[in-house]
Amino acid sequence: MRIGIMGLGRIGAFHAETLSTLDAVDSLVVTDPVAAAATTAAERFGARAVASPEALLAAGVDGVVIAAATDAHPELILTAVRAGVPVFCEKPVARTIEESLDVLRAVRDSGVEVHIGYNRRFDPGYVAARKAVVSGELGPLTTVRSTTLDPEPPPAAYVAVSGGIFRDCAVHDFDTVRWITGREVTEVYATGANRGADYIAAAGDVDTASALLTLDDGTLAVVSNTRHNPRGYDARLELHGMRDSIAAGLEDNLPLRSVEPGATFPGGTPHHFFMDRFATAYRAELTAFTEVAAGLRPSPCTVADAVEAGWIAEACTLSLHEHRPVSMEEVRKA
């Protein structure tokens, strides 16, 4: 199998390294607007560097991995789909919900599989949590808690165009809540604060946020996020049901310090970066995409799935700014 990679920044180079080690992948073709990035990746991973996305598609690839800047996602997705080539694209689908909907409409009846990268769907702990819900062993859920705490804020230039903490960070939690529970969000209430970097407030964003989501069966989901967690990168999930309670991410590298007398857990080196926290998940995710590209399975996270997480982010952003509960129906009609 020959896989093309569009975009060779931090995550694109990481994906290139992973793909180069998969048994299903025989060769890579890479491209980036910065020619030196493509050349460097080609030298590192034995890939072929080409000058443009069109040249990459003309090279006879079986699938395309898009890891370019967010603004480029819609056109790159559609270019690959028009060529009939299966696509893996890092989230988000597009910079805005309107653009994402345009992509959804364009690919819906194309017959080409598009896989959006929400890596927690492939993390072993999160997968086990999903199985526990599906099997019914937890009983009816009462509360879901999903946490993403970044060790440090992204650069000011990124914050200025990201759309806010709910759209670029909490959206992982929103996708997780939908996927794990199999339910839809009906209403949100969100709040936030600024406790650190001044440039985040200057961009009209918050650096710490919480959202309370009401699901369509009455389950409550609590989502917590911050840009400032110096102990490390903390991504966790708790599920509390009528019969049992479980957690994903409750392991020795959890960036949390217990102050209970005599406690030795967690005792490992705290996760500092999302790439080390979810290294196993990223590999499983790209392995799944090779199966999608080979026609062995449908997309495990469609454009429609990504758009649903985006709608929740829109509702939370509105709730944050207007200090009130917001129904999903309201934002969909806006």
CATH level-3 fold name of the largest domain? Dihydrodipicolinate Reductase, domain 2
Strand count, sense and barrel status of the largest sheet are: 7 strands, mixed
Strand order in the largest sheet: 12-11-7-10-9-8-13
Q: What's the count of strands?
A: 13
Question: How would you state the average pLDDT, rounded?
Answer: 96
Strand content: 15-25%
Question: What is the total domain count?
Answer: 2
Class based on secondary structure composition and strand pairing:
alpha/beta
Instruction: Give me the CATH architecture of the largest domain, please.
Output: 2-Layer Sandwich
Helicity range: 25-40%
Shape descriptor reads globular
Low-confidence stretches: none
Radius of gyration, in angstroms, nearest whole number: 20 Å
| Annotation field: number of helices | 14
Order of helices and strands: EHEHEHEHEHEHEHHHEHEEEEHHHEH
Distance between the termini: 44 Å
Q: What is the name of the CATH superfamily of the largest domain? A: Dihydrodipicolinate Reductase, domain 2
Query: Any idea of the CATH class of the largest domain?
Result: Alpha Beta
Organism: Streptomyces violaceusniger (strain Tu 4113)
Protein name: Oxidoreductase domain protein
GO molecular function: nucleotide binding; oxidoreductase activity
Keywords: Oxidoreductase
